[in-house]
Amino acid sequence: MLPQQRQDQIVRALRADGAGGVKVLAAQLGVSEATIRRDLEQLHEQGRLTRVYGGALAVDGGDEPFAEVSAVHATEKDRIARRAAALVTDGQSLLLDIGTTALRVAQQLHGRSLTVVTSNLAVLEELQNDEQIELIILGGFVRRSYRSLVGYLTEESLRQIHVDWLFLGTSGVRPDGRVMDSTMIEVPVKRAMIKAADKVVLLADATKFPGHGVAKVCEPTELSMVVTEPAADQATRTQLTEAGVEVVLA
């Protein structure tokens, strides 16, 4: 992982959790504590976090997390999104998770006869004027900076539906294939989505192998498929395959 990618992940983890310790961040990112300390010092100098004893605190940045992430690895995400959209047959139903890769999947669905269910407000904006698509928005509390809906109402809505496909996002995949997320308030919604779908497809670019995350979303055995890149860690891909997951390279 490049230093810039690692530092971006540190900032996103702090924004999700509010604070982070050196030891925890080092474990999440699989690097030494000395490397994390250097990253924190550089990020502090850049004004992207506040350095404190033993770790760092998040700061209120100017850019929204969704907008900041949207431009990162855009080409790779587009390839993954095209491959994911090709899995769906007209007449089927699908759930789209939060995140920028799910938005890119939505961009590939225009003009198709599909039912799309989502808690992603960016997907709502993308598909709301497409009359071919039956669009269902889950209820819930609005997280404006992440352009998502969360909470009890969202989870309850998911208990009332069932779909053919779920396209799921993640903060990272552990070497043993566990799917993790650093935005803890989103995890119960992701788990409810998994229960509401026949087939669960994880969308993850190569930087997510291995990735960070403090909360487990699911075990690899709960996935049907992972759509990723050829550059994704081979050992992790092997673990997924051995768990019965189909790994598709975009």
From TrEMBL:
Gene Ontology molecular function: DNA binding
InterPro entries for the chain: Carb_Metab_HTH_regulators, DeoR-like_C, DeoR_HTH, NagB/RpiA_transferase-like, Tscrpt_reg_HTH_DeoR_CS, WH-like_DNA-bd_sf, WH_DNA-bd_sf
Residues passing through the membrane, by range: none
UniProt keyword list: DNA-binding, Repressor, Transcription, Transcription regulation
Stretches assigned to the HTH deoR-type domain: 3-58
Gene3D superfamilies, per database record: 3.40.50.1360, Winged helix-like DNA-binding domain superfamily/Winged helix DNA-binding domain (1.10.10.10)
Keyword Oxidoreductase: no
Main function: Repressor of the lactose catabolism operon. Galactose-6-phosphate is the inducer.
Protein name, per record: Lactose phosphotransferase system repressor
Taxonomic source organism: Kribbella ginsengisoli
